[in-house]
Amino acid sequence: MTAPVTRHPALASADPEIAALVAAEEQLQADTLRLIPSENYVSAAVLEASGTVLQNKYSEGYPGKRYYEGQQNIDQVESLAVERAKALFRMDHANVQPYSGSPANLAVYLAFLKPGDTVLGMSLPMGGHLTHGWGVSATGTWFRGVGYGVRRDTGRVDLDEVRDLALTERPKVIFCGGTAVPRTIDFAGFAEIARESGAVLVADVAHIAGLIAGGAHPSPAPYADVVSTTTHKTLRGPRGAMLLSRAEHARAIDRAVFPGLQGGPHNQTTAAIAVALKEAADPGFSDYAHQVVANARALGEGLAARGFDLVSGGTDNHLLLIDLTAKAVPGKLAAKALDRAGIVVNYNTVPYDPRKPFDPSGIRIGTPALTSRGIRASEMGAVAHWIDLTVEAARTGDEATITKVRAQVKTLMDAYPAPGLRVA
Fold it and tell me: Which residues bind (6S)-5,6,7,8-tetrahydrofolate (predicted)?
């Protein structure tokens, strides 16, 4: 059903087509069980900050050192975001200007490497990120990327392999973290390898920043030279990014972001980041972070009991990576069927996947968004049951079951309204 457009009267008057699509998306987010690990719901306050008149300002430079006048208020907004980031993550320095996670990581390269230098990161098919030196990325084109993986028998990073690669290849930068890593990152172990090999250690915590802020995952602060993160995902902020570092790297990081890669920061996003960081410092955020993990573990247990093959055997965080080979259903087919059932996931490569990335063997699911709605572990058995029914229905072509699951999902979503949405 198409949602009414009167929730955005100015937009509806100026551009009814876009207003209708925005309202329809609000309704879709309200009605569906969003299980993509990188998605979440922001609060009404974060949403409001993202759409303020700060949009109207250009602010090249940093607080107190701008290339434009009229920055009296902007400087205070950015300074608040910086101080809150430093306090929350216990790092010496914070830069809140990167437009997103990929430019933030590219700034790391500009700060510490020259074209052709070696970088060691988790291979993309094993759960890493494109910007950790993978070949099709600029980071793998301009720099020499070397990848580490996970063990076939455990699905976990083998630090002995990482150490051997680091001592052999002598990278300038080592990345830890990724996009499909369901287990705790051993920051201390990576730091020791970086020390032995003379590399800068960068912890990419984009997926788990909210868990770190809430105390549900160990912090990289005592170990990493630089911490790169997006500000959405588990942190529940706007689509943006931050770079945090030790004091000795502050100047290099700042110069890499501006003027190295970017012009003026997006001030409305900076304000929304500041709001999200304030929310993350509230004691209630810790409850949310721990509940995200509890929900993921409960969902994993429910799926394992139904015969699903969980990469690494389960999860320590918000994310589950599932190999559907034993279910005889490709990941893409399963993801599209789940979408029709109102369960939003993404198809995903699994370690040592024999299938192609655009039609892989697995799906990736996570619990941040459903946790933000107030859904708890007691509901994960039902969610696992719906996923099981839908994956089997995808295999057999049973659309009637998919339609039935869709109605049951809608009932659960109605019982747990999503924060920040203007849906009645």
Answer: 124, 128-130, 248
